[in-house]
Every structure is written in C-alpha cells, then in structure tokens.
Write a structure and sequence with these properties.
Blueprint (H helix, E strand, L loop, with lengths): L4 H9 L23 E2 L6 E2 L7 E5 H6 L5 H4 L6 E5 L5 E5 L2 E2 L16 E5 L2 E2 L13 E8 L3 H4 L6 E7 L7 E9 L3 E13 L3 E12 L3 E3 L5 E2 L2 E15 L2 E14 L5 E5 L10 H8 L12 E2 L6 E16 L3 E17 L10 E5 L2 E14 L5 E16 L2 E4 L3 H5 L3 E2 L4 E2 L9 E24 L2 E23 L7 H10 L3 E23 L2 E12 L2 E2 L18 E2 L2 E14 L4 E20 L9 E22 L2 E16 L30 E13 L2 E12 L2 E2 L9 E2 L2 E13 L5 E9 L7 E6 L6 E6 L4 E9 L1
Parallel strand pairs: 7-10, 14-19
Antiparallel strand pairs: 1-2, 3-9, 4-5, 5-6, 7-8, 9-10, 11-12, 11-46, 12-13, 13-16, 14-15, 16-17, 17-20, 18-45, 20-21, 21-23, 22-25, 23-24, 24-28, 25-28, 26-27, 28-29, 29-30, 30-31, 31-34, 32-33, 34-35, 35-36, 36-37, 37-38, 38-39, 39-42, 40-41, 42-43, 43-46, 44-45
Length: 786
C-alpha cells in the first residue's frame, strides 16, 4: 500500500510537510494565498498567527473535493478519524483520542465524546449530529490537542468547529444539483439578502440527499445502507449599529434510510469448544453466509432495518462592542431524536429479531464571553458557561426461534440440562433510561506580548458537573418453564436490572504557550495543556457480581485527564506562495475511558464503561500548500504512536478466549483505532478556456492499518487503504464569483476496497462483521451563483 501513487507523490514532493493549518487557501492572481481567518481562540485572526495545531477547510475546498459530511472530512485532515456503524454508534478521534472505536461505549448514553463538535459556537453533545450533510458552510476548523480552556468540556482530543455562511446585506443566491450512480441525487440551495435596509438581513439554506443502497440483501432482493437526508437552516441578522449585532439561527435536519447493516468479513478461532464456534454453529443450522467476500457487498439479514433520526434547534448570538472589549452571548436549545431497527446477529438466522433504543435528547447552553478589542500588548478572553442535557432512552430487544441454539447450546448448567430450541423464542427486554447533566464553568485566557516578537499565553478553566443516571429494564416472553437451569440460561442472555447513580466532579484545565516570531514569515511556538473529558455513568447495564446483582461500583466512570506537550513551526515562504507547518506532540492520558468486555456472566458479549489507567500518544503532524499561479498543491502527513502504557486487566482477544473469561494484560499494546500513518495529497488547477476556466481537482488519502476493536484481536485488524477522488469541470464567473459551473465527479475513483469499521458478533461465535467501503460513484454537478 505504501507504494501507491498518492503516498509516493506525497513523500517525494513534500518531504517535510507542515502541520496544522491545512486551510482552503484560494489562489489569487499572483499565486499568493489569501489570509485565512479563524476563531480558534474565540477572536478573528490569521490561522498562521495561531500558535497551535489546527486545520482549516474552507467552502471552496469542500466543494471541489465533494466533501459532503464529517466522514468525508477525514480524507482532507489526516489526524482526524471517523468511524460509524450507524449515526448513533459514531466515533471521532483526533490523534487517536476521543472515542477510539465504534463499540458499545459509543451507544452508551452516559458516555460523552472526547472530541468537541461545535456549529456556529454551539456545542453538540451527541456525536450522531455529525451524520448529517454539510449545508452552506463557510469553513471548518479542526483544532488538535486539548482545547478545554476556551472550548470547554470534552475536548481532550480536540474540537471540530463548523462556521456557517452568515447573512449578507447584498442579495445573492446559490443553487447546486448533483446526480450520480445508484440514483444518487443531491440538491443544495441558499439565498441571502436584506430584509430592512442595512439593519436586517436573512439567509436561508437547505440540502436534500438521496441514494440507493450499496449492499444487496440476497434474501429480500432489496438494496440496503441507503442514504436519505434533508436539512434546512434559517438565519436572521439584526445590526442596528456598528457596535451591536444579533444573529438568530433555526435549523432542522432529518436522516431516514434503510440503514445500517454490515457483511461477513471473516471468522476467528477461539479456545472455546469447537461446537460453540461459528463453523459448527452454522453447519448445525444449515446456514451459509450470503458471501464470504465482503466486497461482494451481499447480506442476508432477516430482521427489519431502518434508521430514523433528526436534530434541530434555535440559537441566538449577540455581539456588543463596548469599546475596550466585545461582549458575546450565545444562547441555544437543541434536540436529537433517534430510532432504528437492527438485525444485531447480522445473519439470515432468526437469532435476534429486534434491537432498538428509541431516544430523545434535549440540551440548553448559555455562554457569556468577554474579548478584548484591538492589537494591544495585553489581550484577554474571559467568560462563563452553562450546559444542561437530558437524554431518555427506551431499550427494546427480542430474540427469535434460533436464539437458544446459537447463544446457549444444546445443554446448560452443571447437570447438562437439555435446552429446548424455542427457549428464547420471543424472549426480550424493555426498559427506560434517563441521563441528565448540569455543567457550570468559568474561564479566562491572557495573551501578553512581552517583546515585539515574543508572546506568552496562559489560561485556566474550572468546570463543575453534576450527573444523574437512572436505568431500569424488565424481561418478558420466551418459553415458560419451572426449570431453574433453563431460567438461569434465559437470564444469562437478558436480565432485568434497576439502578441509579450520581456523580459530582470539579475539574481544572488550562494551557500555557510561548510564541516567537523571529521574522515575519516564521512563527515558532511551544505549549503545555491540561484537559479533561467528563466522567460518565454506565447507561447500558452493569456487570454482575457473584450474587448476580448489578455491580454498582462500576456505574460511575471517572473523568479522563489529559496532559499534552507540543511544539511547532509555521512558515510562509517564497512571497507567501509556499506554506510549510510542522508540529510534534506528546500526550499522556490517565483514566482513559474505554469499553471493557465481560462475558463471564452472560453468553452474549457485554460492554460497560471503565477506566484504563494510562494511555500515551506521541506523533508528528505536517502540512504544506504550494501555489503556482492557477495551480494549488496541498499535502498533509500525520504520524501517531499510541500505546496502552498501563492496562493490566483488559479484555482478552478472541483467539485466547475460552468458555470462562479471564483478564488479559494489554500493557504495551497499540492503541485501537489509530492508524500509525495517514497522508493526504490534493491538487487544483484552473486553465483559461473559452471565456471561462477548465477546473480540475484530485485528492488522495492513504491510511495505514489499525485494530478496529479494543480487544486487539488479530481478527479485528483493518488493513490500510488508499482513497482517491477527482472532478473535472468548466466554470464561468465574474469578479464577484457569480456565474455557473458544470463538473463530472468521481468518489473512490480507483474503486478501492477497504473496511470502514467492524463488529464482533454477540455470543463469541468468532464471526466478524465489517462495513465495506462505498463503491466508486461517478456523477454530474451543476452550480449556479447569483
């Protein structure tokens, strides 16, 4: 894989790529980059002047690369990883930290993400929000490393800061229509203009996406893993004077599709009895998978499949310039609804018929911020923050007529009691969960220019959080029996539980930074940062003690504590035609939150949240941008070495599992979910032609292999891959950017086959499922700007 064209070009053409501000730098006539303005430190400033690791992707680059959502963003930002088995089970990582793999932990309502996700200054608490397509975006800032001082909770790994296009007092409209293979259709529209002179303006935008499925169900003849999203956003800007402005935003997005399932990837071998492993179990059932080649993209699941999720909210942002400072208030309410139907055995056998967790999340947030004005020797940002979240869920699971043979076997208990085949037929669990959190914070950061070219920065944030979780489930159905052994067998699969837990925690985070500008085009910096990720409450059931009661000591998960050292250089050379940046970092994380697998009390795999004593990640990140007239080349490189430096009682990999569970020492093993290498190379070229321009774009991303499950089983290794996208089009536009464009695009141009994420089938049969890459998609896009 390392000999691919993309990695060869990247390694040979950009030997010392630079780090973080991989911005959408639009070339102007002389090839000099335009200044990229970001708000990474809660004030507008040049991205190159920010002494921190960040990547910036602007609207033009999003369009040219045909990046539709956060998943696609990972091909442009190598340090960002995104994995999603479905919108609920979504994991972001930056530098390998966050929520490392898509597993039970990502569906646990009591666990919060480690990568902060912000849209127009509002924190989105649930990672499922990232499943929706981008709409009318100005830029996306990916901030690497702890951001707790200014961005607050759950940014131990970093933050994704999405900034929308703002209302304008100049009328304008954009229309875009794309069509492609598998009946892909996407329409995007936006309009802006004045409502009342130069005081009141609006902006309205929306997007609709449809696509047939990329998997074929050979049992039903239907396509599955379809796409169906729509989103609308309305904004009103009131600006009665130069010193005051108020922006009101309302948005709604919906995702409804026949999604999301996985296909047969491979079968692993354990130390369990041969009859309890997948080959023997499948043979006894007379079952053959739809295909043993995951890239045939065949499935044969027999249970309903659907995803219905929506989110929306209202946010009001006021900025008041009072002279020495600007006071900013950001008030927001948001909601998220979720429901889905899954076949969690991923086979054509009626093992599990229903697996659902209908959920509703509501959040309120209020931030009050004070930012000094002007370029003075002493600048500051200070503020207060409040956040409240309530999330309710209703788990529902039902097993089918082949549940008992697959999950229990032909006999059970010390006396080898025969197990009727229909023991679990109709046996299920239902319940109610509620998770609530109140978070309060105060923060301040000061930049002091002690010499004309030397600036020291220091900041602190204190956060107090109160959390409460309530969990209650009951069981029903199945074969009625007076046999203690059979009833215990049923309870080993699903057991009623009821418990409540509370957590009160205060955390101090902060950072110190020294930045030196020896000459105008070179900036050096070194920083130290401390961050934290909120503690959690296990909201998916607890492991059992010797008396088969919930182990209440495992209900509360402690906060993560992150310490990061970082140094970097940012440069602009050759009359600003060449941008080179580089950063190196070392992160130690204590009480790392992860999924611990416990199958000692239940046949089916059970996951619960716990704390790994210590994880260490170190690495180098680089990026470069070269502008030669109408040609722009950008490249990026991320190297990350993650290790479980202390993990004495981890879950055992499949190959050493027996019928009993024993802890395995994973100390010194690699961190799951982190590719050691990730590279990106992209190019844009505009050739004058017939009063317009022939525009070409290509981008290629390569990632090395990594473990896709925290057990680090050899059977959960995901091979490295290269993904290449391209487009060619013709554009006519005036100096104001008004005009039209038509282009042919290709996603996955070279038809790369790779696995996006994987799952170990419940029950330890050894069956490994995977989500294969989307096949090549070719289509046509038409854009009109007025």
């Amino acid at each position: 894989m390392r000999t691919t064209l993309a990695s060869g070009l990247l390694t040979g053409a950009i030997l010392v790529l630079a780090m973080p501000a991989m911005a959408e730098e639009v070339p102007v006539a002389d090839g000099v980059a335009e200044t990229i303005i970001v708000t990474a430190r809660q004030r507008p400033e040049n991205a190159q002047d920010v002494p921190a690791a960040l990547s910036v992707v602007g609207s033009n680059w999003l369009e040219q690369s045909y990046t539709l959502n956060t998943r696609g963003l990972t091909t442009l930002v190598p340090a960002l990883n995104y994995s999603s088995a479905n919108p609920r089970n979504t994991a972001f990582t930056i530098r390998g930290l966050g929520s490392t793999v898509v597993a039970v932990s990502q569906a646990n309502d009591g666990l919060e993400p480690g990568v902060g996700y912000y849209v127009d200054g509002v924190y989105h608490a649930r990672p499922a929000a990232a499943a929706f397509d981008f709409s009318d975006i100005d830029r996306i800032e990916v901030l690497r490393g702890p951001q707790g001082t200014l961005f607050g909770k759950n940014t131990t790994a970093g933050a994704i800061n999405i900034v929308s296009q703002v209302p304008s007092f100049t009328s304008a409209a954009n229309v875009e229509l794309s069509v492609g293979e598998r009946r892909f259709v996407q329409a995007r529209v936006s309009a802006t203009g004045p409502l009342a002179g130069d005081t009141l303006a609006f902006r309205l935008s929306g997007t609709v996406t449809r696509r047939d499925g990329v998997l074929r169900n050979v049992r039903t003849g239907q396509d599955q893993n379809t796409l169906g999203t729509q989103a609308v956003r309305g904004q009103v800007l009131w600006q009665p004077s130069r010193d005051f402005r108020f922006k009101l935003i309302a948005d709604f997005a919906n995702f409804g599709s026949e999604c999301c399932t996985q296909v047969y990837l491979r079968v692993g071998t354990s130390l369990r009895a041969t009859g309890r492993q997948f080959p023997a179990l499948a043979a006894a059932a007379g079952y053959t998978p739809a295909s043993t080649n995951p890239y045939d993209r065949f499935t044969d699941i027999d249970a309903p499949l659907a995803v219905k999720t929506s989110e929306g909210g209202i946010a009001g942002t006021a900025d008041w310039n009072v002279g020495p400072a600007t006071i900013t208030s950001v008030s927001a309410w948001r909601f998220w609804n979720w429901d889905a139907a899954n076949d969690r055995d991923y086979t054509g056998l009626p093992i599990q018929l229903i697996q659902r967790i209908p959920s509703r999340q509501d959040q309120l947030s209020q931030e009050l911020r004070f930012v000094s004005n002007g370029d003075h020797a002493l600048r500051y940002v200070a503020g207060l923050y409040y956040f409240r979240q309530v999330l309710t869920g209703h788990p529902n699971s039902v097993y089918g007529p082949y549940g008992a043979p697959w999950l229990i076997g032909s006999t059970t208990g010390a006396s080898a009691t025969p197990v009727p085949m229909n023991l679990l037929d109709g046996y299920g669990q239902t319940g109610d969960t509620r998770f609530a959190v109140d978070s309060y914070a105060g923060f301040a950061e000061v930049n002091w220019r002690i010499l004309p070219r030397l600036t020291v920065t220091g900041g602190l944030r204190y956060t107090q959080e109160d959390k409460q979780g309530d969990y209650k489930t009951t069981v029903f159905g199945g074969l009625a029996t007076n046999s203690t052994a059979l009833n215990n067998a049923k309870l080993s699969v699903l057991r009623p539980q009821s418990y409540s837990a509370r957590d009160h925690d205060g955390s101090l985070s902060g950072r110190a930074n020294l930045a030196w500008k020896p000459v105008d085009v070179v900036r050096l910096y070194a920083s130290f940062a401390r961050g934290f990720k909120s503690g959690g409450i296990n909201m998916s059931g607890l492991p059992l003690d010797a008396d088969n009661q919930p182990t209440l000591s495992t209900a509360v998960v402690r906060p993560e504590r992150n310490t990061t050292w970082e140094a970097g250089i940012k440069t602009e050379l050759w009359d600003q035609r060449l941008t080179l940046n580089l950063a190196a970092y070392h992160t130690t994380l204590r009480n790392f939150q992860a999924t611990v697998v416990d199958s000692s009390q239940t046949v089916a795999l059970r996951g619960y949240l716990s704390n790994i004593p210590e994880v260490r990640v170190k690495g180098i990140e680089a990026d470069a941008a070269l502008r030669l007239g109408a040609l722009t080349l950008t490249g990026a490189l991320a190297y990350g070495d993650g290790t479980y430096t202390r993990y004495p009682a981890g879950p055992c990999p499949l190959e050493v599992q027996t019928s009993a569970t024993a802890a395995c020492d994973l100390t010194g093993k690699p961190l799951a979910g982190l590719p050691r290498w990730s590279e990106n190379l992209s190019g844009d070229y505009a050739l004058p032609l017939a009063g317009g321009s022939l525009v070409l774009h290509a981008d290629s991303n390569w990632r090395s292999g990594y473990f896709g499950d925290p057990t680090l089983s050899q059977y959960t290794w995901i091979e490295g891959y290269n993904l290449t996208n391209a487009r060619i089009g013709y554009r006519q536009e005036d100096a104001q950017g008004n005009g039209w464009e038509i282009a042919i695009f290709a996603r996955n141009l070279l038809g790369a086959n790779y696995i996006q994420n994987l799952t170990i089938q419940a029950g330890n049969s050894g069956l490994i499922l995977g989500t294969p890459s989307d096949p090549r998609t070719v289509g046509l896009t038409f854009r009109l700007r007025r």
